[in-house]
């Protein structure tokens, strides 16, 4: 095989088409192989006069009907699923849209992802039915601006995955796939044989790690489905045939329903009730006659960005549509088409625990909501978003039975997001206006910054610019960059570089799962302060749990890490051990018990958070140290005191009522089926067999089950003692961190609190056992003393001022006097003097040269000027006043500098 790119692979496969593309069906149904006059691809057709492959770029849609059919989403699914069931497929339930089992992707973007588990950088397929069909809801955000416009793009869509695994041992291959495909197209969709074409193409993962030939089915100008035959893998510069080949047919269900209905757009077929409701509530009259003129042609352009507005305008000119009608009818129709799509994505996303935020996948959800808010405002659409979501949930419930469980939360989230958006908008408008008026170019980086720090969407910038009649250039793919950029890279964890080469060393035997604290082990490799043994009782850092410490042959172990199963011990001091040497390992059990208590407590706090806040309160991260631990919890608003207290109480109630921690290894799909995807809280380690840590109450009711490689207080449950949440703060938008202590650390923390109270009591001179009341009494006493003191100060100031007046030491009606009181007292005395004798002015200062000047109302002198003039006289040559004031009163410090 030549260089790996799609073009050359397609050439190679097509050259050998009998091996890669032909099927029995083509022969029996009389399909011949032709080459497309327009694009040069090879295709199969039973229509001998056909010259084009059927790609939508060569021909307009011809499946759109004057009188479209109205078939419900769930009803059509029933028909579709029963066809595959009849043909030997098991129909399995959809997986969540949030990809908890594959940490490199935030959302599920294709149905096949359900069965992909990444282990050591390679994709393994795992499945519990074969062949199967799954109604997998997927989310893609790279085409957001096309949604509502192109007539066919969605942010959430069902990929009905028809999958057969592991051919040739099980499953089926091309003949059966195309046979079923042909039966489905002619049977379910009623397409005439001569109107179907199959185009030879290639499917590949982005990095060509897996690829294979595919046959795309076209009819009526629409690509209906792509049947992929994943047959090859590419690794370390070599292409190999896969041992287990996979048939992967991702039926885009929205598209099928559209084709079947023959409506102008896919949205009319998928969201008929939602659209009826919005039209009637908003009092908007869609003009389908007008839209018909653009509907077919919309497929021929890909309006990727606002800046392609010109292309859009050219198109409407070509179609003879008036600009006013375009702006007042077609544009709002396109917005209304996008709304049910966006809200359905919110429905699925939130139901599976994704929340709108500025980070991760939540980013995408927030953009969708803000687009809906913008549409509502721009086109003045009045309708209830929750009503749209309710219609959707009702329609989807037969396929997704849990889809209506989070509706109340969604209502709360929409209101919160609306308020947040309104609050940021006025600030955003100023920023955008400033930018466009300066004529600054809108770069991708700038868009990202504007979005991340101000929540300003590209749409919003466009709208503000338009409002002001300004033209701005948007970069290509503005949305895809914003939306695709962060959520993948943000999730990818940086792998730490460890200087020790462990290749060729077999994985270390793990003794810590048996809770060993001691071993005599044999040295495998020693380099600097790094040491590898044949077996080790030391738990290596992982799953947020810090490493065990202890000693090896008396040398302190300060860190332990695992690299592909090989455990590396980091010693405090470099020491060389000979290969084969026997060494004695001793684990610091005090530390380990503390780490275990914090780990088990983390699972309890996580379970408590879900119980208190709802199932969206996903654990997004955790750390378990010796003295404290933390857990990061997803929630759509900042946790308040009450919620935090309730989480703490719930977690402690688990403990008080009795818990039992157990561990079981099981097959992944068994664990996923038994406990659901919530086993992947925070730190699921994907591997074929999972270590499931289960916490039950004493009656055996499940509290929490997680795939977890950490150490827990199994059989030592009482060590957990108590959990105390000690602080909370927001680490990202949408994620709160709870810091807590458990076990011995909690006992110490509480003892520390007690000590602090004792100290306060001692300082206050009250009884520590009754410190609250004691300190209260003290404060009352102090308040009384302060009042007395102020009264005394007042009498004193009166006495001093009278003395001053009596002394009569003045020049030109100005008294200048040094008095050692603070500035407040000086002000009081001076005020008393000028109130008694209004023709006087007074300057008073103390030994640190704080000075106050006040002029009597009849003195005719300016206090500020007086103070400046006399600064040198008071403090010596060159002295200046730092301060100032008015003619009536001035004060400050006189200094030599
Ligand atoms: Zn073609
Ligand atoms: Zn854990």
Structure description:
This protein is α+β, with helices and mostly antiparallel strands and 897 residues long. Helices cover 39% and strands 24% of the residues. The strands form seven sheets. Strands 1-2-8-9-10-11-7-6-3 form a nine-stranded mixed sheet. Strands 13-14-18-17-16-19 form a six-stranded antiparallel β-barrel. It has a six-stranded mixed sheet with strand order 27-28-29-30-32-31. The longest helix has 37 residues, at 771-807. It is globular, with a radius of gyration of 37 Å. 42% of the residues are buried. Mean pLDDT is 88; it is low at 303-307 and 485-494. One zinc ion is lined by residues 36, 38-39, 41, 52-53, 55, 58.
Summary, kept brief:
The protein is an alpha+beta fold. It contains 24 helices and 32 strands.
Distance between the termini: 85 Å
> How are the strands ordered across the major sheet?
1-2-8-9-10-11-7-6-3
Mean pLDDT: 88
Q: Strand share of the residues?
A: 15-25%
Helix content: 25-40%
| Largest sheet properties | 9 strands, mixed
Which structural class is indicated by helix and strand composition? alpha+beta
Provide the list of bound ligands, each named once. zinc ion
Q: Can you tag this structure with a few keywords?
A:
897 residues; nine-stranded mixed sheet; six-stranded antiparallel β-barrel; 39% helix; globular; binds zinc ion; 24% strand; alpha+beta; 32 strands; 24 helices
